[in-house]
Amino acid sequence: MKRITIYDVAKEADVSLATVSRVINDSNVVREDTRLRVQEAIKKLGYKPNAIAQGLALSKTTTVSIVMSEKLFAYNAKILNGLMDVAKIYNYNIMFHTTSKGISRMQDVIESIIKSRVDGVILFNDNFSQEEMEVLNDYQIPTVVVGSRIEDNGIETVGNVYINFEQLAYELTNRYFERGIDDISLVEDKLNMSTMQQLKAGMERAFKENGKEFTKYISYDETYKSSYAFLTEYFKTHKPSKVVVTLRDSQAIAMMNAGTEAGYTVPDDAELICVLNSKYLMMTRPNVSTYNVPEYDMGAVAMRLLTKMLVNDESVKNNNKINMSYNYMPRQTTKD
Amino acid sequence: MKRITIYDVAKEADVSLATVSRVINDSNVVREDTRLRVQEAIKKLGYKPNAIAQGLALSKTTTVSIVMSEKLFAYNAKILNGLMDVAKIYNYNIMFHTTSKGISRMQDVIESIIKSRVDGVILFNDNFSQEEMEVLNDYQIPTVVVGSRIEDNGIETVGNVYINFEQLAYELTNRYFERGIDDISLVEDKLNMSTMQQLKAGMERAFKENGKEFTKYISYDETYKSSYAFLTEYFKTHKPSKVVVTLRDSQAIAMMNAGTEAGYTVPDDAELICVLNSKYLMMTRPNVSTYNVPEYDMGAVAMRLLTKMLVNDESVKNNNKINMSYNYMPRQTTKD
């Protein structure tokens, strides 16, 4: 008898692999009707989730390295969950590497990856240089970069699963131009400079197309405490912009607390948008407007792409850059 | 003597890492003069590219498995940082395993650990049963459990780096008894039941010693959204206790938001303590009182303990249960 796999369930329910995995995992981002359809398919086929590992245990073990910055652990949790779930489905071993200032540099990690002869690599963006990626390419180690977009440099063995942050910032800026607002600030996040550069580029493009210049790029320290202290000082002599955009939740909340305590009201005096969503944005009053980014899916898709690259699947040969969708989620810190 | 790396060669020859790698790999896209310069540098420094493989054969690489629950990834980030930094110092390979409901059970992870013949294991608490730990013990795999205290069951190969949550809750409760307050609630966290049981036991001990009975153990859903919804309903018919204790930040903030919106004031109507600290507890108004727990140190100490267990260090033979200190950090949600 043919062993029932998660693929059969996905096919039967007409949903993606990631969706089946999410239903099994009790994730609450699945629509109720989808969940029911998946559960029916599981029942109908007699699928048993734990049969996966048993079935695959006979074949050769594939080992994949995941590399990320220590400082971004907490922020990358959902992407990692997606990566790990799909890795588990394929029975991959995961070698975990972290980079941290002063303790482990990316170049040491690359060397360790080459030495341990892993089959493939998942890199979170912002951890590596072009040069280091070329080394992995020279050793013919299939690599997928997850997070933001990398330069298309013709490196065939490097896939990319990304959010187009440049386009996101471009659209955001134009939305405000349409309302006649051009007083927009972007708050720097030093932990994530490649994403910041893409957001900045998108804003600059929108300003330029409207015959203006984007100037309000606010740079300050990376932690909540210091950014809160900085902004408390800042608001003694400055007014907030009409629109403030931050990358991470802690910067958005620092902005809101410091601004409110300086006598400004969100969203009346300043609208606030935090690009990366987190549950904490729903815990503030008012709730912070944000973007819905499919983080879990990004991880799941990245690992799935790597599995295809590992077997030299023709379908991904010239098709290994995957642009993930996002959507704007206005809440209480914006007027639109 | 410092080990010569590919980076030293690149520096010496004044070329990129990628170029050195191409020369080593006999790629023909390198210009002849560059190739010669790189080869000279290799010779001068005594760099041995193939030493990697030879080295692996002679001195065995130590591989350690880290096992944690997917759902607690974000919460364990600092402990993981401590683990990874010390692992890096010892040049360990880290195999990363996660457990997640329906997709990977602990028993599958254990099986995979045994199969891949890792040298040692770090387990986060709440991921395993006594039985599973005994399996690791049977295979003589040194294991360190990090987080809360495990039963002392005479399993020699299992170390433990922990916070004594029972004692913490006992002291907390007695502090309120001294102020004449015994209306204390403890809010359940389903993601972390072994820690919850220890907190509950500590409260029960304090109540019992004072001739009373602890009854206010509040059980509800694990996510912020559902707990906020639950509490909003709850406060329509109930008053909050004089003192509310939660384990994680999202539960504390749910409590504060729902309570405030129901017309109660923190700390006047209800004092609030969140046992596990996070930066988000400083972003609320008022700031939430908490405990300072040395999370990074717990990870670092756990990995260091494992390194000693791996070499059968005598000093840890009967001394591998390490009780980490904590201290109370009153802020604005408590009156003391």
Walk me through this protein's architecture.
Two copies of one chain form a homodimer. Chain A is an alpha/beta fold and 336 residues long. The first copy, chain A, folds into three domains: 1-49, lambda repressor-like DNA-binding domains (434 Repressor (Amino-terminal Domain)), CATH 1.10.260; 51-163 and 294-326, Rossmann fold, CATH 3.40.50; 165-292, Rossmann fold. Chain A is built from twelve helices and twelve strands. Chain A has helices at 6-13, 17-24, 32-45, 51-56, 77-89, 106-115, 130-138, 165-178, 193-209, 224-237, 249-261, 295-310; strands spanning 63-69, 93-99, 120-124, 143-148, 158-163, 184-187, 217-218, 243-246, 271-276, 289-292, 321-324, 327-329. Chain A has a six-stranded parallel sheet with strand order 2-1-3-4-5-11, with helices on both faces. In chain A, α7 links the parallel β3 (120-124) and β4 (143-148). In chain A, α1 (6-13) crosses α2 (17-24), α8 (165-178) packs parallel to α9 (193-209) and α10 packs parallel to α11. The longest helix of chain A is centred in the middle third of the chain and has 17 residues, at 193-209. The N and C termini of chain A lie far apart (57 Å). The model of chain A is unreliable at 51-59 (pLDDT under 50). Chains A and B meet through α5, β2, α6, α7 and α11 of A and α2, α4, α5, β2 and α6 of B. Chains A, B: InterPro entries: HTH_LacI, LacI/GalR-like_sensor, Lambda_DNA-bd_dom_sf, Peripla_BP_I.
